[in-house]
Amino acid sequence: MTATNPADIPQEPVLKPSHQSGKRRSFATFRTVSALVLREIGAIYGRSPMGYAWALMSPLFMVIVLAIAFGLFGRVPPLGDSFILYYASGFLMFSIFQQTFNPVRTALIFNKPLLQFPVVTWIDAVFARFILNFFTSTLAYFILIYALPIYTGESSRFDSSIMLETIALMGGLALGLGVFAHYLFLEIKPLGTLWDIVSRVLFIASGVLFMYEDMPSVVQEILWWNPLIHVVSLGRSAVYSHYDATFVSIPYVFTVILVSAALGGLLLRQHHRRILNKR
What is the mean pLDDT of residues 213-221? Predict the structure, then answer.
């Protein structure tokens, strides 16, 4: 029996990583996210166009209620002449966070049956809910913030660059904090109930009703750490050109976005299957 020289054994060609695999995965992710978005539209808004129309117009009713409630006391709005536009400038921006954050923080629970399929990943579920709800709340913001001056008679010369920057920051906060909160609420169930209480206080603590500058200095020092009040006030400066929100720190808001998104994403990636299997 003759020995075989290893050099004479035919070697299989070394497989080089295909650049097409990344493209195929990107396309698969796009299709998956698109399918999840369409599924959510059907589940939440139904087959009637009025379901989506209500999602766009519902913030207006909250603004009207606030304007009437405070207008009955005969008060003058801190900015401008119209209570409706003043509260809209704060509430609509806060609403972008609220209407995006809440779906993001429940994305995996909402799509739990679909996560059993290999093609659907946890990040697909998160991005699908983020894209739909961020787009819807942003569209409602633009429609109402530009329509209200027609009714109130105030100037509609808004700073579009600041407005877009503010919306991007608010979307980043909703995504980053939503992902981080999703892990915490899955891991520690009572935190979800606690958040329902805190969110009511957050509405006031984010500068929707009152101006940051009108609050006592002690309260200002506490509220400064709330990133939402920075973004809400920045958004208000886009509507009222004479208002200069000097306390706003964009680097601080950006840091909160990066830290919460990175930490929340890492924790969800490592533990989402274990946590969901326990539920």
Answer: 91
Task: Report d(CA 117, CA 119) in Å as an integer.
Answer: 5
Judge contact between 207 and 87, C-beta under 8 A.
no
Angle at 173 between CA 276 and CA 218, to 5 degrees: 115
The domain ranges of the chain are 42-278
Count the alpha carbons within 13 Å of 278 in the hemisphere toward its beta carbon: 8
- Of the two residues 184 and 20, the one the predictor is more confident about is 184
Mean pLDDT confidence for 236-256? 92
Which has the higher per-residue pLDDT, 48 or 118? 118
Element (H, E) at 19: helix 19-40
Distance from CA of residue 158 to its chain's centroid? 23
- Measured between alpha carbons, how far is 80 from 102 in angstroms, rounded to an integer? 31
User: Measured between alpha carbons, how far is 224 from 244 in angstroms, rounded to an integer?
Assistant: 16
Q: Is 33 exposed, middle or buried (0-12, 13-18, 19+ CB in 10 A)?
A: buried
> How many residues can be counted in the chain?
279
Distance of CA 199 to the CA centre of its chain: 14
E strand or H helix at 170: helix 160-187
What's the chain's average pLDDT? 83
Q: How far is CA 63 from CA 95, 107, 141, 148, 247, in A?
A: 11, 28, 12, 11, 25
Q: What is the pTM of this model?
A: 0.83
- Output 106 or 276, whichever has higher pLDDT: 106
**What distance in Å separates the CA atoms of residue 50 and residue 45, rounded to the nearest whole number?**
8
| Mean pLDDT, rounded, for 227-255 | 93
Q: Is 50 exceeded by the pLDDT of residue 22?
A: no
